[in-house]
Amino acid sequence: MLQGHTAIVTGAAQGLGYAIAKAYAAEGMRVALLDIRGDLLADVAAEIKQNGGDALSITVDLADAGETQRAADAALAHYGAPRVLVHNAALLITRSMREITLADWQKEINIILQAAFILSKAVWEPMINAGGGSLVYLSSGSGYKGFIEEVAYNPGKHGIEGLMKCLALEGREFNIAVNAATPGAPINTPMSAQNYTEELKQRWVDPALLAPAFVFLARQDAGGLTGHRVAARSDGSWDAIDLL
Ligand SMILES: NC(=O)c1ccc[n+]([C@@H]2O[C@H](COP(=O)([O-])OP(=O)(O)OC[C@H]3O[C@@H](n4cnc5c(N)ncnc54)[C@H](O)[C@@H]3O)[C@@H](O)[C@H]2O)c1
Description:
Layout: E1 6-10, H1 15-26, E2 30-35, H2 38-50, E3 54-59, H3 65-79, E4 84-87, H4 102-130, E5 133-138, H5 153-171, E6 176-183, H6 190-195, H7 198-202, H8 211-218, E7 228-232, E8 238-242
Parallel strand pairs: 1-2, 1-4, 2-3, 4-5, 5-6, 6-7
Antiparallel strand pairs: 7-8
Bound molecules: nicotinamide-adenine-dinucleotide.
């Protein structure tokens, strides 16, 4: 069902996004890879192509609205309507309320939440015209609990879950599934390397182990799982909580 269809994955240069992009390519999907790290992204696209896949790398700063719109337009022009959009890119800079500036705050919020809106709006009509699709936003424990020194990341992740709930309801009419996903296990990624405690680093796993949940989510439309927060487990399973 996914073979020959398109996935758009943000933050695909490394970490969890890289694992998701590779899993989609292994399913025979054509993958539009978006990331600010154009150097790494070129290697990811080359790796997918070497394995017989089809990938397009688009270097973009998702904190910038105009660049984000242009990246979405480029992906749509190249591949047409995607079956799935996974907005996985995020930035976590731990800063207290006393330290953070408005510019810092806006940058993190824009990458997490503004980009989710712009990318989702860009694919919304094409997905409607294609008869459906699936939107997936990477959330976090920070999407439902509070943490100190996450003055931007915490509300950004809460916001993305709010956008998910609204669009899951609006998407019913158009056969579009909208879900949030969280890592259901500690994962070995550059973000984790910066932010995990030593105890967590003892038991972090390859994010590729979490990829089956994202393959499952790519297959969803409004008749399947929608409006849920899905925790991707390292044994390839997942738990889903209905948020509607
Ligand atoms: N690592 C964890 O334990 C953990 C826990 C909960 C949620 N998450 C979420 O999972 C997702 C992936 O996390 P990860 O650990 O792989 O993160 P990561 O930092 O390792 O990778 C994130 C990717 O996003 C890209 N990115 C950052 N800023 C960008 C920008 N301005 N424009 C375009 N791309 C940009 C980075 O270059 C990177 O490739 C994130 O949404 C994160 O919030 C991670």
